[in-house]
Amino acid sequence: MALIEWRKDFETGFPGIDFEHKTLVESINDLHSRIDQSGGDASGTIKRLSEIHVLVESHFALEERVMREEGFSRFKEHKADHSILLDELLDIMDTLSSGQNVDLDSTLGQRVRDWFTTHFSTFDRDFHAWEQRHKNNAKN
Ligand SMILES: [Fe+2]
Ligand SMILES: [Fe+2]
Predict the structure, then answer these.
(1) Burial of 35 (C-beta count, 10 Å sphere; 0-12/13-18/19+)
(2) Backbone CA torsion sign across 84, 75, 66, 12
(3) How many angstroms separate the alpha carbon of residue 40 from the centre of ligand 2?
(4) How many CA atoms does the CB half-sphere of 18 hold within 13 Å?
(5) pLDDT tens, 110-127?
(6) I need a surface site. Which of 2, 8, 96, 122 has the fewest CB within 10 A?
(7) What percentage of the chain exceeds 90 in pLDDT?
(8) Phi, psi of 74 (to 5 degrees)
(9) What is the C-alpha R_g of the chain?
(10) What is the distance in A from the centroid of ligand 1 to the CA of 65?
(11) Where are the domains of the chain?
C-alpha cells in the first residue's frame, strides 16, 4: 500500500496546486516503496528519507519564495509548519543513524500522512486563496 493515499481532504481548492501536491506525494510514495522494510538496510533507508527530505524542502522553498515576494502576512506561521515536517523527517533519520529500529510504516506513515492531511487543506489553502486575491487586486 502507498505510504500516503491521496484523500479529498488534502485538497486546497486550487486544481493546479493540488496537482503539484499530488506529484509530490507520488514521488514520496515512490521513494518509500523502495525502502527495505525489513529494517536490515538502515543506510539505504536514510538515503531514501534524505531524498524525500530534499523533495519536500524544495517544494517548501518555492512556496516560501512566492510568499516572501508577495509579502504574505502569515509567512512566519506557515514556514513554522513546514519546519515541523522537515524536523520530523530529520528526527527519524537521526533515530535510524543511532542504530535504533524504526517501524517506518506506522511512524512515517502516521506522522507524515497526518501532516499532509492538515497542512494542504489549511495552511496551503489559506495561502493560495490569499495569493489569488492579491493577484486580482494587483490587476485592478
Ligand atoms: Fe504546498
Ligand atoms: Fe505550505
Answers:
(1) buried
(2) positive
(3) 34
(4) 15
(5) 888 889 889 999 999 999
(6) 8
(7) 59
(8) -100, 30
(9) 16
(10) 12
(11) 23-139
d(CA 86, ligand 2 centre) in Å: 12
Per-residue model confidence (pLDDT) at position 125: 93
Gap from CA of 65 to ligand 2 centroid (Å):
11
Residues with CB under 5 A from ligand 1 (ion): 124
- % helix / strand / coil in the chain, to the nearest 5? 80, 0, 20
Ligand of minimum distance to the alpha carbon of 85: 2
The pLDDT of residue 105 is above 80: no
CA of 16 to the centre of ligand 1 (A): 11
- What is the distance in A from the centroid of ligand 2 to the CA of 91? 20
Distance 114 CA to ligand 2 centre (A): 14
| Cell numbers placing 43 | 543506510
pLDDT digits (tens, 9 = 90+) for 34-84: 887 777 788 999 999 999 999 999 999 999 999 999 999 999 999 999 999
CA distance 135 to 65: 16
